[in-house]
């Protein structure tokens, strides 16, 4: 016999809202990442790169790759959060911390409006640590 860890799966409206916001944020990160490569057309690439206060010399390394990674991991952790998995909550918190660190660097190195990228991750952390602390725990059941 083995034990399986599952979360008490009582999905709240708040948890669904956090997961949906994380999905939207991830989708926008994909859009930005693909847009900076020109994959969505040169007009979009020009629009996105003119938004930067300090143009970067290597947009692929500094913008595209981090945004693709943040977007991909954001989708994965949001799915885990919707499924009620503790790793989804922990992953959302960890990814939010990484996002805040990346955006703090971007505020200094690229543009001051990167501070807006910290709003949702801070909300995610606050909600999961203060309101939905139970999302971080699991219980064992015999299977």
List the helices and strands and how they pair.
Elements: E1 3-6, H1 13-37, H2 42-50, H3 59-82, H4 86-109, H5 119-131, E2 139-142
Antiparallel strand pairs: 1-2
Mean pLDDT: 81
The tally of strands reads: 2
Shape: elongated
Measured distance between first and last alpha carbons: 7 Å
Q: Which structural class matches the secondary elements?
A: mainly alpha
Order of helices and strands: EHHHHHE
Low-pLDDT windows of residues: none
Tell me the domain tally: 1
Query: How do the strands of the widest beta sheet line up side by side?
Result: 1-2
Helical run tally? 5
Q: Classify the beta-strand content into a percent band.
A: 5-15%
Helical content class: 55-70%
Largest sheet: 2 strands, antiparallel
Structural summary, described in words:
The protein is mainly alpha-helical. It has one domain. It has five helices and two strands; from the N terminus they run βαααααβ. Strands 1-2 form a two-stranded antiparallel sheet. α3 (59-82) packs antiparallel against α4 (86-109). The model has no long low-confidence stretch (mean pLDDT 81).
């Amino acid at each position: 016999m083995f034990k399986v860890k599952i979360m008490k799966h009582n999905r709240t409206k708040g948890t669904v809202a956090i997961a949906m916001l994380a999905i939207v944020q991830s989708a926008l990160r994909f859009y930005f990442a693909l847009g900076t490569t020109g994959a969505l057309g040169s007009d979009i690439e020009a629009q996105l790169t003119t938004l930067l206060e300090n143009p970067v010399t290597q947009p692929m390394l500094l913008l595209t790759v981090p945004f693709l990674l943040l977007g991909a991991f954001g989708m994965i952790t949001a799915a885990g959060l919707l499924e009620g998995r503790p790793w989804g909550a922990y992953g959302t918190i960890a990814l939010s911390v990484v996002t805040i660190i990346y955006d703090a660097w971007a505020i200094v190195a690229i543009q001051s409006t990167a501070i807006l990228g910290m709003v949702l991750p801070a909300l995610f952390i606050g909600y999961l640590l203060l309101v939905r602390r139970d999302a971080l725990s699991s219980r064992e059941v015999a299977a």
